[in-house]
Design goal:
By secondary structure, the chain is α+β, with helices and mostly antiparallel strands. It contains 8 helices and 12 strands. Bound molecules: 2-oxoglutaric acid (AKG) and fe (ii) ion. Belongs to the iron/ascorbate-dependent oxidoreductase family.
Length: about 325
């Protein structure tokens, strides 16, 4: 493993052997994803077609976004910062990345206070940095590396907020929802960015960087590097979402699925670890306003806070998220 001192100590001894705690990729009844090249639907933000958008959200729960208006120089600068920060020695990252930044590893599940949820049953082969965008303006650091990084993140956050709002408004139109009622279903102040690094894993078993899941968000917007490894489940097959430079991947999250009355679907996805190269990704998530009640014909009325609490409980007790099924009307759970 290269770059060893920058990885969490827990990863050093686990790398050499197939560890029982690492979730394995479940390829049962599925074809090998690496052999399947798929054409993810493409949505053009500059000339947005409601029909194409609606179709992609219904059939895939995911699309590739082009002409999003983020300068390529900002995208490459951010990627460089992310690589530089993760390459710091483990102890330095812990010391440097303080509130509102939060450095974590082994699980992508954080508590509402921002701490990593410990006691989860599985280790995911990842490190992450959590960044609540609304808290960035108050952040001050003596370290010039973090100051520059913060400015780039703020600029990136403004772009992502613009993009998410435009897409959400178009989805509301396409679904014929009441625009007034839908206003609180997407609250830009809830937006956060997650930076991830997936270290390479040399042993021959197929380790999982991030276990399969659906996102709890309204929308998630993923910006992955050229290494790749993101896979989606479609028609019971895992498909590799190959990286295309300069494009973004928009995922429909659980909240959007509920808002759309299950017309759109929250896409199941996971991340496969690369054997030689580490992978980084920059992901944005946005949620409904805290007290906004989500009403639909399929689910009991609930707030995002109710949903999040349920996810935390299930993750602690069962080791995985049950998700929307917990809120289904007449659910036996
Ligand atoms: O790293 C990625 O590409 C995906 C991350 C992800 O799925 C998540 O944070 O929910
Ligand atoms: Fe995800």
């Amino acid at each position: 493993m290269s770059n060893l001192e920058s990885y969490p100590p827990d990863f050093h001894h686990l790398n050499g052997s197939p560890a029982p705690l690492l979730p394995q990729l479940n390829n049962h009844s599925m074809e090998d994803s690496s052999s399947l090249s798929v054409s993810i639907p493409v949505v053009d933000l500059q000339c947005l077609s409601l029909e194409k958008l609606g179709q992609a959200c219904k059939e895939w729960g995911l699309f590739r976004l082009v002409n999003h208006g983020i300068p390529p120089s900002l995208l490459s600068k951010l990627e460089e910062y992310v690589k530089m920060l993760f390459a710091l020695p483990f102890e330095s990252k812990q010391a440097l990345l303080t509130n509102p930044f939060f450095y974590f590893w082994g699980t992508p599940v954080l508590t509402p206070s921002g701490a990593a949820l410990r006691g989860a049953l599985n280790i995911n082969w990842l490190e992450g940095i959590n960044v609540p965008l609304s808290q960035l303006p108050q952040f001050q650091s003596e370290d010039p590396r973090l100051e520059d990084f913060r400015h780039s993140l703020e600029e990136y956050g403004r772009h992502l907020s613009r993009i998410a709002t435009a897409l959400f408004e178009a989805m509301v139109k396409s679904l014929n929802l009441c625009p007034k009622q839908s206003e609180s279903s997407l609250d830009e102040s809830t937006g956060f960015v997650r930076l991830y690094r997936y270290p390479p894993r040399s042993v021959t078993d197929e380790a999982c960087g991030m276990m399969e899941h659906t996102d709890s968000s309204v929308l998630s917007i993923v910006n992955q590097d050229q290494v790749g490894g993101l896979e989606i489940l479609k028609d019971n097959k895992w498909l590799l979402v190959s990286p295309i430079s300069g494009t973004l991947l928009v995922h429909i999250g659980d909240m959007m699925q509920a808002i759309s009355d299950d017309q759109y679907m929250s896409v199941k996805h996971r991340v496969r670890v690369n054997k030689q190269e580490e992978r980084v990704s920059i992901c944005y998530f946005v949620f409904p306003a805290k007290c906004s009640v989500i009403r639909s014909s399929k689910y009991k009325p609930f707030t995002y806070t109710d949903f999040q609490e349920q996810v935390q409980n299930d993750t602690k007790t069962l080791g995985y998220k049950v998700g929307l099924d917990r809120f289904k009307l007449n659910a036996p759970l």
